[in-house]
Specification:
single chain; 118 residues; mainly alpha
């Protein structure tokens, strides 16, 4: 089951913990998107984080694009309005606004979690 997370609290915790909560958020968000999209081909959150770390952030750019594609698939599977944000996520990540990607992905995950709770 996808867990609904308070986005404002997640941002505050990321700032207060100097990014440590952001790492946790990245990992669980990746796993939640995989679960929502029923996709077994993409890496787990932990592996995605390690690849981002090892490649000095280059894999993170691919991750952002892939999250857009997987969210589109998850929205289709859960009967929600489908938005293809892959390119938007890619551009935001390239210009250094990955936290906005996190917020947008989490907002879509929250909609899936709310639909699943009903």
């Amino acid at each position: 089951m996808i867990q609904k997370r308070d986005i404002v609290v997640a941002i505050i915790l990321t700032i207060v913990t100097c990014g440590i909560y952001g790492i946790y958020w990245f990992i669980v968000m990746t796993d939640d998107v995989k679960k929502a999209a029923n996709d077994d081909t993409f890496q787990s959150g932990g592996v995605a984080f390690l690849l981002t770390l090892i490649t000095c952030g280059i894999y993170g750019i691919y991750w952002a694009y892939k999250m857009g594609e997987l969210m589109k698939k998850a929205q289709q599977e859960h009967g929600l309005e489908v938005k293809d944000n892959a390119v938007l996520f890619l551009v935001l990540d390239i210009i250094g606004f990955s936290i906005i990607v996190y917020v947008l992905v989490q907002a879509d995950l929250n909609k899936i979690a709310e639909k699943g709770a009903n």
